[in-house]
Amino acid sequence: MTRVLLRLVLAGALPVLLVVVWWVASAGSTDVYWPPLRTILTAFPDVWMPERLRADVLPSVWRLAAGYALAAVAGVALGTVIGSHRRVRAVCEPVLEFLRAVPPPVLVPVIMLFAGIGDTMKVAVIASGCVWPVLLNTVEGVRAVDQVMAEAARSYGITGAARLRSLVLPSASPQIFAGLRQALSIGIILMVISEMFAASNGLGFTIVQFQRGFAIPDMWTGILLLGTLGVVLSLLFRLVERRMLGWYHGLRDAARRSP
Amino acid sequence: MRGTNAALGVAGLAGFLAPAEAAPRLGLVDEEYVPPASRIAVALGEEAGDPAFWTALGDTLTGWALGLAIASCAGVVLGVVLSVVPYLRQATASTIEFLRPIPSVALIPLAVLLYGSELRSVLLLVVYASFWQVLIQVLYGVQDVDPVAEETARSYGLGTWARIRYVLWPTALPYVMTGVRLAAAVALILAITAELVIGAPGLGQRIGVAQTSQAVPEMYALIVVTGLLGLVINVGARAVERRALAWHQSVRGEVAV
Fold this sequence. Notes:
The complex is a heterodimer. Chain A is an all-alpha fold. Chain A has helices at residues 2-26, 37-47, 50-84, 86-101, 107-115, 119-143, 147-155, 160-197, 203-212, 216-244, 246-257. The mean pLDDT of chain A is 83. Chain B has helices spanning 2-25, 37-48, 51-84, 88-99, 108-115, 119-143, 147-155, 160-198, 203-212, 216-244, 249-256.
């Protein structure tokens, strides 16, 4: 009971402190760019009414989900193939390195030429940026499969799908999840950027509209909403990760407990 | 083995470039949208002869390097401190989880208002974005410390500093390296994005100008330059990584066979 309480206090103390400091420090602010926190919070419900949430936030989230899912599937699949075959890796590496090195936002104008300014363009931009951390981490994870276990699997004649399912993917999964986590934040960045370029709805579009119209408190509410969205997605991610990597954390805990 | 690898790599590159040259020439894709690779190469040559291009490259690199250096130092120091001091990791977890996912591009409007299109605008975005890459990797890496090694070090009476140096750091180093490498890429993305969106001087700004003036081959040439720049950065980071991790499984396996 006390441990749960302690954890709650530890999790809550710093955010509360920071919010209080922000509230107090900005309370008498007359600076146009740093409005008092009270003003921002009062503006929040007026700006983000249900209609606006449905019209601007839902499409953004949908595009992000589609692009991210595409990138995750493609990244893990390609990464496993590239990571487990030395020759494939040698052939693909220069091209992949180059494609990965191109900053995804500069592809927005290019993808716009082909896909117009609709949802397809935004999903393509998000997927093309998110795929690299997943791919890179999968390759690294697959390469770092324990040599002894790999030899053991070989001598037991475990090959193909069984080897993939019971040796390679589990062993690489902590790395893959690290990649997925990074891809999530890159995905949100690209979601916003693609909407800043050419869009008629979406979070990024709305925030830039506020800034151009010098509606500074409204702009701040947008930033706060993006933060909240990020936190919610991050919590969801953690739930999934805990489920999928339960065995891994369990193993660590067991090793920690045993003398 | 090294020669074969290089040959395979060149083959892969040729297999990528050949369709990029042939498809527009054969009319499979619109030449207006995708100029043939050779046309892009010509535009690239023209860019290289323009002093303004080199100034832009210098501006981009300055923003990138300064931002990455600040973010890496801060990320590593803070990451180690957070995981070594009891309760600090738990106390900051929720705050980190809140701040980290705020996309740095959401700060673009704020950066524009505060600093206009100066270097400081770019730095604000670059540092904010790449800092989390390093920090999260450091935290992941520290979590991966082998409990047996940790307990052993403790029972041998190693102090905090020695445990960081001999147990924690070697375990976390591969993660830190991956983090810095990813941060280097993210820093470049953000530097160029900031230039593209805000209009701070640099390669991104030139891409924006080429785009609005319908100079499609020049736009592609500049995109290729950003790719090459990223490539150089990544190869450099990888060389450093290989040096620092010569003892680690993933690198060792490569050398042995």
